[in-house]
Amino acid sequence: MINIALVGYGKMGKMIEEIAPKEEFNISGKYDVINPVKEHLKNNTDVAIEFSTPASVIENIEFLSSKGIDVVCGTTGWYNKSDVVKDIIKKNGTGFIYASNFSVGVNIFFQMVKNAGKLINKYPQYEILIKETHHTRKLDKPSGTGIRTAEYLLEGISRKDSFTSDSAEPAFNEINIISERITDVVGKHEVEFESDADTISLIHNAKSRRGFAEGALLAAKYIKGKKGFYKFEDVFSELIK
Ligand SMILES: NC(=O)c1ccc[n+]([C@@H]2O[C@H](COP(=O)([O-])OP(=O)(O)OC[C@H]3O[C@@H](n4cnc5c(N)ncnc54)[C@H](O)[C@@H]3O)[C@@H](O)[C@H]2O)c1
């Protein structure tokens, strides 16, 4: 049984609570802006799952790690401070795992995209395009997952060396990422390999936030009792064994 603290009890915190199997996880505390973890932490916590805000995440990590609690971090927007977080984790000798996208399906999609890039490298007749579609409240463009998709393709395709965003005329060496914002789309990512003869597509379409929550729980099982700073993508294949 893993005792979990939900640090940030918004859309993601609630989804994790809803799907966490009762025989494996005990939700030992729920914290948010009006019930801050720093003031109200209960004793029996093995792992904190942190989905709060960019403004609060570093302070929360620092506090949780100082209490010997391992952290799964889903909050985005702090990666320019990752050296600070690495130092905190090292100093306290705790475990930390993060992802900009904890979705199990997206991480499977990344592996497929990586392999597809290597394969398409041998077939110069194919042009490469990424499309990402999200709800209209999403502020960043292109999405972090769209950028990561481009990076995986760039690893394998030697005729491409950079990506561009919403370009009307991408250069030969660029992969174009087209972004669309449509009401109520959770998140759709598509890679198209297009020749004069045909189109080959790889698509990931999120139906809800459930996939993120499933990945965060897998990460909680992985990080419990471990020491060090981990990226979900790097250990994903170990997690799904
Ligand atoms: N990595 C992923 O897979 C993934 C998936 C979805 C969302 N996210 C990110 O996770 C974060 C949260 O997303 P959400 O959709 O749940 O947002 P949300 O707005 O629904 O919830 C945020 C929660 O954080 C709480 N909060 C604010 N300040 C806090 C503090 N000091 N301590 C504790 N809690 C505090 C709020 O009260 C609220 O409950 C965002 O950064 C979002 O981009 C990441």
Instruction: Categorize the overall geometry.
Output: elongated
Q: Extract low-pLDDT stretches.
A: none
Count of β-strands: 11
Structural class: alpha/beta
CATH fold group of the largest domain: Rossmann fold
What is the CATH class designation of the largest domain? Alpha Beta
**Physical arrangement of strands within the biggest beta sheet:** 2-1-3-4-5-11
Kindly state the mean pLDDT as a whole number?
Answer: 95
**CATH homologous superfamily classification of the largest domain:** NAD(P)-binding Rossmann-like Domain
User: End-to-end span in angstroms?
Assistant: 19 Å
What is the H/E string?
EHEHEHEHEHEHEEEEHEH
Q: How much helicity do the residues have?
A: 25-40%
Number of helices: 8
**Share in β-strands:** 25-35%
Largest sheet: 6 strands, parallel
Radius of gyration using CA atoms only: 19 Å
Query: Can you name the CATH architecture of the largest domain?
Result: 3-Layer(aba) Sandwich
**Small ligands present:** nicotinamide-adenine-dinucleotide
Number of structural units classed as domains = 2
